[in-house]
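Thread title: Can someone regenerate the structure for this chain?

I was given the following input by a collaborator and told the matching structure tokens would be attached. They weren't. Posting the sequence so someone can regenerate them.
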Amino acid sequence: MNTGFKVGMLVMGVLMLFCCGGFMLMLSPATTVVEKREKEAKSFGDNYTRQILRNWSADQLVSLATESYQKEFSKDQFQKSLDGNKKALGSYVSGRGTARLKNTNKKGILCAYEQRATFANGKARVKMDLVYADKKWSIDQFAIEPD
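Best answer:
Regenerated them for you:
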């Protein structure tokens, strides 16, 4: 092979590595922010799922809900739903959840949180949509699906 060709290929390879590495370096801060928000959402979800379900309290749920979610249901409707689940599932025992980024927009960051929870009478999935806006997390959707 021609020496010039070898040098050219070497230079081209180095440039490609540099470009790919630069691209990955540019993505790194975005990935870090996403991971940070997902960890925050998981921590928020784990903590408040435990608090809501240990007391089966609509007060706690409403205090953490977004304004738009609060308008969808009255506190009494929230409590009636929680009471029905409490009757079917019994006391909350434990659970750990996961969170993943769903969407971002002008209103904030939306994460989907899901916890496989254990209760005295069985298991259920607790699902929440969590919104990060104005430097705080809020609940935009809350559901319990018995297994």
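The domain at 3-146 is CATH 3.10.450.100 (Nuclear Transport Factor 2; Chain: A,).
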